[in-house]
User: Fold Molybdopterin molybdenumtransferase from Ethanoligenens harbinense.
Amino acid sequence: MYRPYQSHDFTPTREQMIRIIRENISPISKTEIVSLADSLGRICAQEVHSQNRLPNRPASQLDGIGVRFADFQNGMPDTARWKEGEEYYFSNTGVAIRDGYDTVVVIEKVSFDAEGRLRIAQVPSAPGEHVSPAGHFLEIGELLATPGMRMAPAHLGCFASGGITEVEVYKKPVVAIIPTGNELVPAGGPVPAGKNVESNSVMMAAFLREWGAEPLVLSIIPDEPQLIRAALESALARSDMVILNAGSSKGSMDYNIDVLEQMGRVLVYELGHGPGKHASFSMVGSQPVMGIAGPPVGAEITTDFYVHAAVDFFLGQPDVVPPLLEAALQEDFGGMRIDFCARLHIYLEDGVYKAVTVPRSMSRGRSVLHANARLYLHAGDTYTKGDLVRAELLVPKEYIR
Ligand SMILES: Nc1nc2c(c(=O)[nH]1)N[C@H]1C(S)=C(S)[C@@H](COP(=O)(O)OP(=O)(O)OC[C@H]3O[C@@H](n4cnc5c(N)ncnc54)[C@H](O)[C@@H]3O)O[C@H]1N2
Ligand code: MOO
Assistant:
């Protein structure tokens, strides 16, 4: 299918890129049955109805004494000679009301004098007062879940009460990651001179797990078109989507786009924002392939923007935007030729959130330690010192000090 944006000249902004991804990804329809404990965070694929009625007998709503409302028909009776187990009994919260009783008096209205004689301070106002009728919490057949709902801990609790032990959920999208580059060696081993540690797949796999996808990390592929093609074919056969990492730019060993053009349709050759500008988006048949540039900082941002959105769309969910925080920028910033996603360090001073940009010159280690927010600037946006910016938080607001 012809796409007007399928051109070398089209370099999408973040919003445009998200739209292209949305247009090209269909929600996964395959489902599987998982145990209730394993269903946390999964997307429910069925309507679920309670099999239990709870309470299954009328139950006490409070700690108190169970009584017969008929005894209070003419106002407060003389309770001085009432005996436990006859006119009243001790009835605790959530416990079934004993046969022959119908009403509960809260314990705070009950007292006993020195001789042990019962005194009730207030006449119950109606029969059944402080009694939960059967089915008050849950009815048989009551709707507990609808398709598309993400399972949270409270849902698991409700399912358990409803007698549900297994849930039909959509399969996790499987995202294959192909690291490429002659200079890369696997993480955890020695790093020979001139080599670099393959770390992007570690980060990407962790992101994917966090978002509810299943990572499939392939071994490092050397910069050779036939090997990249073979790796892509194998990855596509085993996944819903592929991330082809690095080899995206203009170097003599950057073959990925050529291979993708041979195998499918390249819809986006390059982004209209940095860092991570050399990201691409292709369709091979009905499967998306996301090209992510090699340098880890850009790889982090573009994976977080676009692979996250793709996973959300595979799961039939909206793309989730991070929480925003207004902070006063402590420097002049902006005026870029293309859109740019800056990393910010926000701190709290005199009760005011203040932000400084994390300079690109800072080492990767220090900058990851330092950055707690991002700022997406459109081309030409300029800020002067003191301007309020709407930052996208990478940590909960409460963590900022
Ligand atoms: N002549 C030009 N050179 C470059 C341009 C350009 O426009 N013209 N763009 C620069 C920009 S911007 C980016 S981004 C990079 C894109 O690089 P590639 O995606 O082609 O990646 P490589 O060249 O293979 O590697 C770059 C860098 O990243 C490291 N890397 C790669 N994969 C991993 C991994 N899995 N884990 C950790 N680190 C990885 C790699 O070792 C290199 O250090 O191109 C610029 N150049
Ligand atoms: O756009 Mo490249 O990603 O500078 O880092």
